[in-house]
């Protein structure tokens, strides 16, 4: 018999990574919202893996190492958040009504703005990974996925769901204060542990820009979708790396 905690952790792991997690237990709708507690923990595991890759590739030139870390980060997450970012770029470009935005995000085709957005995002990530000094980069490789997954928690807790159905519906509808509080404590503790007050400052900057993004999405479509949650996560990673470069 799998306990609720283990079941919900495995659900978060299954949702956020490509790891072949098989869960035999039956899920209730509220298990999805409760699994948000473990999103920053899964981010920590991803960060530790990327940190290990950083030290493994330490003999390589900075640009090559940055490219490999970026590629691995995409592969291990299944590119799911990049897909959401691309769809969000397509949908939110211009002054479209809510119905059209939601329709575009459901479309499997990729448009010009999605291509431009993805290229810009990946170029920024690569250049930042190649520019941050090695003595600080390993810390940011751990904090970045923690912060970005925590921003997903914020997105789910702070908004309703914009559709009548969808993969992320239960994460949003059953997100609660308990999940938010525990995820916050976990994230703040690791901020202090790895970078002390600089880590907390970096978290505050990340949350500020994530909140602006969330409010813009809420204004346009009234809530979250799986795609916009992924877009917020990707944008948060760039913000962490960018301000991390200036705070070191």
In short:
The protein has one domain. The chain is 77% helix and 0% strand.
Description:
- The protein is mainly alpha-helical.
- It has one domain (4-247).
- 77% of the residues lie in helices and 0% in strands.
- The chain contains 11 helices and no strands.
- The protein has helices at residues 4-16, 29-34, 39-56, 62-77, 80-92, 98-106, 112-131, 134-158, 169-173, 177-221, 226-247.
- It is globular, with a radius of gyration of 17 Å.
State the helix count.
11
Please mark out the parts with pLDDT under 50 across 5 or more consecutive residues, or reply none. none
What overall geometry do the principal axes of the alpha carbons give? Answer: globular
* String of helices and strands: HHHHHHHHHHH
Count of β-strands: 0
Radius of gyration based on Cα positions: 17 Å
Residue fraction in strands? under 5%
Termini, distance in Å? 47 Å
Q: What number of domains?
A: 1
Structural class: mainly alpha
Biggest sheet architecture: none
Average pLDDT over all residues: 91
Helix content class: over 70%
Q: Which key phrases capture this entry?
A:
mainly alpha, 248 residues, 77% helix, 11 helices, single chain
């Amino acid at each position: 018999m799998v306990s609720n905690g283990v079941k919900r952790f495995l659900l978060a792991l299954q949702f956020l990574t490509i790891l072949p997690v098989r869960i035999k237990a039956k899920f209730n709708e509220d298990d999805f919202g409760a699994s948000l507690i473990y999103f920053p923990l899964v981010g920590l595991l991803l960060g530790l893996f990327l940190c290990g890759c950083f030290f493994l590739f330490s003999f390589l030139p900075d640009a090559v190492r940055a490219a490999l870390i970026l590629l691995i980060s995409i592969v291990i997450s299944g590119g799911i958040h990049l897909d959401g970012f691309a769809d969000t770029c397509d949908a939110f470009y211009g002054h479209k009504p809510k119905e059209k935005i939601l329709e575009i995000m459901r479309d499997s085709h990729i448009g010009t703005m999605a291509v431009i957005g993805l290229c810009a995002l990946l170029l920024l990530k690569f250049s930042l990974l190649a520019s941050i000094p090695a003595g600080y980069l390993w810390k940011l490789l751990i904090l970045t996925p923690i912060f970005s997954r925590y921003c997903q928690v914020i997105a789910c807790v702070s908004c309703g769901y914009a559709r009548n159905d969808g993969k992320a519906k239960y994460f949003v509808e059953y997100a609660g204060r308990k999940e938010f509080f525990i995820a916050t404590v976990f994230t703040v503790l690791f901020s202090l542990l790895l970078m002390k007050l600089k880590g907390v400052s970096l978290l505050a900057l990340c949350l500020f820009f994530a909140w602006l993004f969330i409010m813009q999405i809420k204004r346009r479509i009234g809530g979250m979708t799986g795609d916009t949650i992924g877009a917020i996560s990707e944008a948060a990673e760039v913000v962490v790396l960018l301000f991390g470069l200036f705070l070191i």
